[in-house]
Design brief:
This protein is an alpha+beta fold. It is built from three helices and three strands. The protein has a three-stranded antiparallel sheet with strand order 1-3-2, covered by helices on one side.
Length: 77
């Protein structure tokens, strides 16, 4: 099945939540994906490393990536 969503970030929980917050401020709705939490809820042992994926609709990907790059650059400083 084809998805209308693009993954724009995969990494630590804090950064993913920061990206989500900034995107919501400009009206971009995100989908947060937490594979470790899904596995835990299903009863599987999981390596819970706190990583999340942030997805947005494909037509908003370019605009969202500006935010991702800005936040990533801030963290490197």
């Amino acid at each position: 099945m084809k998805s209308n969503y693009a993954k724009i970030y995969s990494g630590n929980r804090f950064t993913a939540q920061r990206i989500e917050e900034k995107l919501l401020e400009i009206g971009i709705v995100t989908i947060m994906k937490d594979e470790s939490e899904s596995a835990r809820l299903a009863g599987f042992a999981a390596n819970i490393n706190g990583e999340l994926e942030v997805h947005v609709q494909k037509e908003e990907e370019e605009k969202a990536m500006i935010i991702v790059r800005a936040i990533s650059a801030q963290q490197k400083d």
